[in-house]
Amino acid sequence: MPTSIGQKGKMKKALLITGLVASLLAVLGLWLHRSYTILKTKPPAPLTTDVKLEQPSSLFNLPISIEHTVLADYLNGKIRGNFLNADLWLQKKHKERVSLALTREENITISSNGHKLFCTFPVSAEARLTDSRFGKFLAKLLVWPIHAKAVVTFSTPIALDRNWHLKTRFKIENIRWEEEPVLKIGPFRKHIRADVDTLLSDNKRGLTALLDAEIDKEASLYPTVSDVWKDLQKPIVLTRKPVPVWLRFHCNDITGHISLNKRAIVCNARIMTNMRMLTDTTAISPPTPLPRFRQTPRDSISTISDVNFYALVPFASINRNLNDVFMNRRFSRSGYDIVVRSVEAYGSSSGLSVAIMTDLDLKSHIVISGRPRYDIPTHTLSIDHFDYSIDTGNPIIRTRELILHDAIRDSISTRLDVQIGSLVDRLPTIITRAVSKAKAGRTIDLTIDSLAIRKCDIRVGRNNIYLLVNATAKNALRIKRIKSGKVIRIRKQAETKDQNPTSQLPRPPDTDNKSRLLPVTARPLQLTNHF
Fold first, then answer.
1. Segment holding 2, helix H or strand E
2. Which of 117, 148, 245, 333 could form a disulfide with 125, with the two C-beta atoms 3.0–4.6 Å apart?
3. Positions of the region Disordered (predicted)?
4. Closest alpha carbon to 467 in 238, 312, 269, 307
5. Would you call 352 helix, strand, or coil by DSSP?
6. What are the angstrom distances between the C-alpha of 346 and each of 53, 55, 317, 353, 425?
């Protein structure tokens, strides 16, 4: 029995030793196989051609607004003081003639109910008798001057003509007389309210025609929209080194829809573009001119832009940055020390590859490869399957490099994430420059917010890493002021006695009849003369 127990113990011991040896041999074999596989793995060859880039289309939705206060400020600057003088006959037989002066002493205000624009126009009327059947001398003794005040309310729809000018059709909604226009001739009183109302309200010759003419002449969206249209087509510098590369939008089409809200007149402009990348701007075609205004269907109105464009990071820039950080940097693990002598990132068949030369305890050539990917939910950049191959050396020494590999790989991966990801962080600036380059000036105010990246397709080429970005943004362009120019002064003559007595009313404020209208010296205004 003792012999049997001793034999069994020896057998168990032998089996345990055999198992341990087998396990060690298996681990050694697996490690040798891995090292041998790594040794035999050739690093990815550099790309010899660059990626082919398409020309994606973009849609810019840009609401352009003119606040009611801006239009009111323009009219208050344009029509102020004594702005209209008219001579009126009080009878068809031309027995008494009155010289009437209209003056704006209080501010014009603009409002809207969302369908029409309302203009509240306070006026003062001063009139005196200049000719009478009793003679001018006697008329001066018997007739007192008229002093009257009224508040006129106009309404108009809003439209844009094919030249991007605001079009109005003002009509009188109400005339509220605070002081009635009454002519006193001795003991007699004569109301001339009907005559003054006609002067104010006549669609062809009155104050309504004056407002229509001035707004049509001066209030144009063309300069503003044209500047944005042209700026969108200017080359935008993406990088200057090692070679300059530009981004350019080519505008194809534009439509718009004019509408009213309670605070502003809004033109929802819809601009279609194609994007391309350039390496030379000397031979590019000039920007296409702004087309005539065409109406956007109401169901296509949006304030969200859908923008596709490229950004890029040159490998030359990446390598400068990597070498600044890692050249001569020491890594220590498990008693081994290595120092990085050079780092070179390049485009390969495996995506993005990084070749690293190490020195000190271990001299080797490590190549790490992976495919960059932009993660939309977290807005971070990562490199998928970032792994390596070893090109030279003895398999027995490989284990030291395997120990140090994680530290090198993780450090470089983090640095690449920061460097390429920082370009994505600059996208709002790139989009702002694309929509309106350096146009935050005195007459317009451009805002871009709610930027959201929906997709970022990263493509690795021979010389660059390209980021094809699809983003949405909410844009708005506010016109801060319309220059008023010179004040208008209009003089209207009454008909002479030998002319048709039914044509007593003042003629429209145009330049076709210079004998009836003093020259209007105001020149057309530009909404965006200065930025």
1. helix 2-40
2. 148
3. 491-519
4. 312
5. strand
6. 19, 25, 11, 5, 23
Strands 444-460 and 81-89: what pairing? Answer: unpaired
- Residue 343's pLDDT is 92
Q: Are 343 and 356 in contact (CB under 8 A)?
A: yes
Q: What pLDDT, in 10s, does the model give residues 8-30?
A: 566 666 656 665 656 665 655 55
Beta bridge partners of 121: 152
Per-residue pLDDT tens digits for 32-76: 555 444 444 567 889 988 888 888 899 989 888 899 999 999 889
Largest CA distance in the chain: 163
Chain segment 295-325, per-residue pLDDT in tens: 988 778 888 889 888 877 888 888 988 999 8
pLDDT of residue 513: 33
Beta-sheet pairing, 245-260 with 264-278: antiparallel
Phi then psi dihedrals of residue 523, to 5 deg: -100, 160
| Residue 179 contacts residue 145 (beta carbons within 8 Å) | no
Tokens 């249209």 sit on residue: 229
Residue 466, strand partner residues: 312, 459
The amino acid that residue 406 corresponds to is: D
What torsion do the CA atoms of 408, 410, 413, 417 make, to the nearest 10 degrees?
-140
Closest by CA position to 395, among listed 36, 26, 30, 33: 36
Is-contact 311 424, C-beta < 8 A? yes
Distance CA 265, CA 244 (A): 42
